[in-house]
């Protein structure tokens, strides 16, 4: 139901859902999961969570709807958080918290960027949004920041959270490294594909009258990018 809710909701609803409500769900899992949970229950749930990371990534590779692509990407990252919180170790819990904060900023930023393109092109299809670097060159830098943080580029906090979760899962069961590594690779592929498709190429005939970014839009992007930069430089702010 989550991708459907993301796609059908207005932009404010999508941003709040990605940045706040999903984190409340993650916080609830951390608080409500018992410390002595049985292995017969934890094995299938972690298997489903890690498999969901791969399946949502593969779905993103073939999505032509930009908002649906970002929504499925959001679901994939929360699969990592769910698998980490089930293990219930200090390392996994801290990694889940870091990734939730990073994902909240990044996913909200991507939804806002997608809405800016939708307001100018009246479509969510990726192929109709190509060449936006020529129409909105300043927004390309924010697209680059959002795409690179989404794929967990070093040294962003997204990478720190994902590395902690991967290390915890590998310590719990070495077989999980195949699932998490494949999920990270697929995430990098569709994030770069999303950036290249929307920013490069020739403008469509309907997009040639696209107006540049407004001050309020640039301010919203700055309020997303600045916390990501500050937390990357000083991760102790989370703790």
Automatic annotation (TrEMBL):
PANTHER family: NADH-UBIQUINONE OXIDOREDUCTASE CHAIN 4 (PTHR43507:SF20). One of its GO terms (cellular component) is mitochondrial membrane. Core subunit of the mitochondrial membrane respiratory chain NADH dehydrogenase (Complex I) which catalyzes electron transfer from NADH through the respiratory chain, using ubiquinone as an electron acceptor. Essential for the catalytic activity and assembly of complex I. It catalyses: a ubiquinone + NADH + 5 H(+)(in) = a ubiquinol + NAD(+) + 4 H(+)(out). Residues 1-186 form the NADH:quinone oxidoreductase/Mrp antiporter transmembrane domain. Pfam families: Proton_antipo_M. Its EC number is 7.1.1.2. Keywords: Electron transport, Membrane, Mitochondrion, NAD, Respiratory chain, Translocase, Transmembrane, Transmembrane helix, Transport, Ubiquinone. GO terms for biological process: ATP synthesis coupled electron transport; electron transport coupled proton transport. Its main location: mitochondrion. Belongs to the complex I subunit 4 family. InterPro entries: NADH_UbQ_OxRdtase, ND/Mrp_TM. The chain crosses the membrane at residues 12-30, 42-61, 68-91, 97-118, 139-157, 177-197, 218-238. GO terms for molecular function: NADH dehydrogenase (ubiquinone) activity; NADH dehydrogenase activity; ubiquinone binding. It is found in: Mitochondrion membrane. This is NADH-ubiquinone oxidoreductase chain 4. It is a multi-pass membrane protein. It comes from Phrynocephalus axillaris (toad-headed agama).
């Amino acid at each position: 139901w989550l991708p459907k809710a993301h796609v059908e909701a207005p932009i404010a609803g999508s941003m709040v859902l990605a940045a706040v409500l999903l984190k409340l769900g993650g916080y609830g899992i951390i608080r409500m999961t018992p410390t002595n949970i049985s292995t017969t229950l934890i094995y299938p749930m972690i298997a489903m969570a890690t498999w969901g990371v791969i399946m949502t990534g593969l779905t993103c590779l073939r999505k032509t709807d930009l908002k649906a692509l970002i929504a499925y990407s959001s679901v994939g990252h929360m699969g990592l958080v769910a698998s980490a919180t089930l293990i219930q170790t200090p390392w996994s819990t801290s990694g889940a918290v870091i990734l939730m904060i990073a994902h909240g900023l990044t996913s909200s930023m991507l939804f806002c960027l997608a809405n800016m393109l939708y307001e100018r092109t009246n479509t969510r299809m990726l192929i109709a949004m190509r060449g936006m670097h020529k129409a909105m060159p300043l927004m390309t830098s924010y697209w680059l920041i959002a795409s690179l943080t989404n794929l967990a580029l070093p040294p962003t906090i997204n990478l720190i959270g994902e590395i902690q979760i991967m290390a915890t899962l590998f310590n719990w069961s070495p077989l999980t490294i195949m699932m998490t590594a494949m999920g990270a690779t697929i995430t990098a592929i569709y994030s770069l594909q999303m950036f290249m498709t929307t920013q490069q190429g020739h403008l469509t005939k309907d997009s040639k009258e696209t107006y540049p970014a407004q001050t309020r839009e640039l301010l919203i992007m700055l309020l997303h990018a600045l916390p990501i930069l500050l937390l990357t430089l000083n991760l102790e702010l989370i703790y």
